[in-house]
Write a structure and sequence with these properties.
alpha/beta; Rossmann fold; 6-stranded mixed beta sheet; 4-stranded antiparallel beta sheet; 10 strands; globular
Length: 232
């Protein structure tokens, strides 16, 4: 499904990630773990074509994706950035409609799907996105990404600044999307408990490079990995 091969990237002449390779299989949820500053967000942005590329490639089903971010979205990548970045002066339905229309999808169908998936958004259908709570904005950001009808959903720190009750709701919804629709998901996170609750496999990023590929069971049992690589 998603393959990132020998990724090298950063900002202008500064390399942040080096020779990173990972894969996400069809219908798989994979975590990208690492300490703050390890390069997780940069690798996610590299995958979306949002940073300078110094080498490597990104492919879906063996098809190498072009550098254009908009083309990557149309070819199956959905992205929920760190910090959410909803359009604050647009309403909840308008945020979803913008994403759907950009990819040639029916806006009314996409809004209905979002409201069915996330009833809390239906309750806020008349509200401007900027007036929502942090957790509600995170849910809206996920719904907006889903409106592009991705094959692979990338989430960058989805639990950051979100209250525990909504974190649990997000986790349950992602598992349902994965199970019912076969959606592949890559999650960059520092919240280990959240990742262990939904993913079965993980990559650990350390100083801009993938240092370890592991399983949920190994993370639970191996205290050395938790301490040395994740600082917990």
């Amino acid at each position: 499904m998603l393959q990132i091969s020998n990724a090298n990237g950063g900002y202008k002449r500064v390399t942040i990630i080096r020779d990173c390779s990972l894969r996400v299989g069809k219908g798989e949820i994979v975590a990208l773990l690492g300490r703050n500053g390890a390069g997780k967000s940069t690798l996610m942005k590299y995958t979306m074509g949002l940073v300078d590329t110094f080498g490597g490639s990104v492919s879906i089903h063996g098809n190498t994706l072009p550098l254009s971010t908009s083309k990557r979205v149309k070819m199956g990548l959905g992205y929920v950035p760190q910090g959410r970045y909803v359009f604050p002066r647009l309403s909840v339905p308008e945020n979803i409609a913008v994403a759907a229309l950009a990819c040639g999808h029916d806006r009314h169908e996409s809004i209905d799907d979002a409201f069915n998936d996330f009833p809390i958004l239906a309750e806020k259908k008349d509200a401007l996105a900027g007036t929502l709570s942090g957790g509600q904005q995170q849910i809206l950001s996920i719904a907006r990404a889903l409106a592009t009808k991705p094959q692979v959903l990338l989430l960058d720190e989805p639990t950051e600044g979100v209250q525990p009750s909504i974190i649990e709701e997000i986790g349950e919804k992602l598992k349902r999307l994965n199970e019912e629709r076969g959606l592949s998901i890559l999650i960059a996170e520092q919240n280990l408990d959240f990742c262990l609750s939904i993913s079965k496999r993980a990559y650990i990023l350390n100083n801009g490079s993938i240092s370890h590929e592991t399983t949920r069971q190994e993370l639970i049992q191996n205290k050395t990995i938790l301490h040395e690589l994740l600082g917990v």
